[in-house]
Design a protein that fits this description.
This protein is α/β, with parallel strands linked by helices. It has two domains: about 180 residues, Rossmann fold, CATH 3.40.50.2000; about 180 residues, Rossmann fold. It is about 45% helix and about 15% strand.
């Protein structure tokens, strides 16, 4: 099947790393692995963060021109596409292109990770919200990765629209080191980190907003457990790097280590060597970093959201705490820092959960079956 792929928020080949970009790439890989010919239809971004109506008007005009360009290009080819697949649309980044192209070609329109916020009906992104309604009404298939979004999109779907609930997924090739202690000693010598103490690790972009708030909450939670011995490794960088580092300053350089931004391959050794993954996950959709942690047999302490709960099984593969409850987060940290056997047990459970439910191979098969059902009628 020839599939046209589009991500209105951020194209999969965008230079800035993020969980959103990672999942877009994984979806393309999953469909390709199933034998489909996936083509990126456009790098056009429809996102407007500020709620600027004039900027949104310009984006709509650019989107209309882009839709016409794509239609003309596909209509003059001997081989067009069989299906359009849009990943991640919401009121700030609606899809102005996909529905028009699908209408012009008479092909199925599929949406993955669509969200709808009714409170925006009279807000500055109301036209973007209306576009989401149109897109949902046009969709032949809906792929939902976050349970939080499921209920709000239902009123706008066609009666015959097919739906798929898909768990977050990633490559199954990397496995946790069988010699975690030895790797930890090697990294400890290289970076001058005491390998005899429990290592906490977190991986996140340092952006303003919820990411920065999560870092601030993590710093406060750790400040309450300074009576325990631990070291924290923070992997990531971004526009909010300075205020993030300031938030951890009182904990001391001997406790907190900043690696800066690393490639995926560079992150793996830290996840294989660490003892516990920690992230408050304020308003997180689900968190690909949590999934990476579980792939590496790391127990997790994270804030509870509908999305994080699809990855971390509370009291089995880690501990999920009440959202933005710093005291509860500190208590969870204390519990796992003091119990190495529980950490090991939860870590092994995490690895087994990943292998059973979150691999690229299983997602590829599931998506393939779903897409073929849309074109077989």
């Amino acid at each position: 099947m020839k599939i046209g792929f589009y991500a209105p928020m951020k194209a999969p080949d965008h230079p800035s790393p993020s969980g959103d970009r990672t999942l877009a790439r994984l979806l393309i890989e999953a469909m390709t692995q199933a034998g489909h010919d996936v083509r990126l239809m456009s790098q056009h971004r429809s996102i407007d963060i500020s709620g600027d109506l004039e900027n949104q008007r310009k984006i709509r005009e650019q989107s209309a021109a882009e839709a016409e360009r794509i239609l003309e290009e596909l209509q003059h080819r001997s081989h067009s596409i069989d299906l359009w697949f849009t990943y991640h649309l919401f009121h700030k980044a609606p899809d102005w292109i996909g529905p028009k192209v699908c209408e012009g070609l008479g092909i199925p329109y599929v949406v993955a990770e669509a969200s709808y916020a009714p409170k925006q009906k009279n807000g500055p992104w109301r036209e973007g919200l209306s576009s989401v309604e149109t897109a949902l009404g046009r969709a032949a298939g809906i792929v939902s990765l976050n349970p939080r979004d499921h209920e709000c999109i239902q009123p706008f779907l066609k009666p015959k629209a097919k739906q798929l609930s898909l768990l977050p997924f990633t490559h199954e090739t990397a496995s946790p080191s069988d010699q975690r202690g030895q790797l930890k000693q090697q990294l400890g010598r290289t970076f001058d980190i005491d390998s005899e103490l429990p290592w906490l690790v977190t991986v996140a972009m340092m952006r303003k907003g919820d990411k920065q708030r999560s870092f601030s909450m993590l710093a406060k939670a750790l400040d309450a457990v300074t009576d325990l011995a631990w070291r924290l490794i923070i992997i990531g960088d971004g526009e909010a790097a300075e205020p993030v580092k300031d938030a951890f300053a009182s904990l001391g350089r001997e406790r907190v280590y900043f690696t800066g931004q690393l490639t995926t391959d560079e992150v793996h050794p830290y996840l294989n060597a660490a003892d516990l993954f920690v992230w408050p996950a304020i308003n997180e959709a689900f968190g690909m970093s949590l999934l990476e942690a579980q792939r590496h047999a790391l127990p997790v302490v994270a804030g509870h959201t509908d999305g994080t709960a699809t990855i971390v099984q509370d009291e089995h593969t880690g501990i999920l705490t009440e959202p933005e409850n710093t005291t509860a987060f500190s208590q969870a940290l204390t519990r796992l820092l003091q119990d190495s056997e529980l950490r090991e047990h939860m870590g092994q459970n995490a690895r087994q959960k990943f292998l059973g439910h979150h691999t690229l191979k299983s997602a590829s098969q599931t998506i393939d079956t779903f897409l073929r059902s849309l074109t077989s009628e």
